[in-house]
Design brief:
By secondary structure, this protein is mainly α. The protein is built from twelve helices and two strands. It has a two-stranded antiparallel sheet. InterPro entries: DUF554 (IPR007563).
Length: 258
Amino acid sequence: MLTTLIWLIHPATLGVFVKTSGTWINVATVLIGSGLGIVLKGNLPTRMQRIITQALGLLTLFLGVTMAGSLLKVKLGIFDGVIIGLIAIVIGGLLGEWWRIDAQLRTIGDALKHRFQGGGSFTEGFVAASLLFCVGPMAMIGSLNNGLSGDNTLLSIKSAMDGLASIALSSSYGIGVAFSILPIVVYQGGLSIAASFLAQSLSEPATNPSVLLTSGVGGLIVMGLGLNLLEVAELSIAAFLPGLLLAPLLCAIIEWLA
């Protein structure tokens, strides 16, 4: 209510904190959830920790499938959203492997593990949580809304989900999950601050083809993360991240050619 009132008074009165308030709420819930998960870790049998991780894997897989459905809502000329998404994630995956993004993320995780003496699953927890919390339509659209009007409603809902997820993740992976707040601050906070510039090129973010394509590709990536959590496969999830940038780029190219 307060942020809405400030927005109605004058957009210029919105400070940096208000524009990124959803991100800070997200940081708080992840830290609280991670702390609870670490406390529970010592009191839960291994089989129960595994059940929690499997439950999170099932939910992650469901969310990924739901997000990927955004590809079905896009039609650009003769190209279906599914085809554009396929091209984006394949080329993005090839670029990610070429740039060794997965290895670089693990290097960062290992460096933090050494610096803070994290447990054996520190890197896995850091990478899994970072991808889960930063990839998806809620992170992107919520950050845009927060940056444009100070409305942090969507990010607050996401924060509650991330807090619960961090309990399950940290009970299995340990303190590495808590350090996922670093990419949350950089990605969501940075996107919120840049939202005023992005707004000039995006009309109706929730239904914009570029946003839908990016969300759909993000859904495919989240599906892969769910499969990894369920130990069904070992996918190099981070390698596909360039696909998130290629999706709106391909959309812009197709619209320009049309």
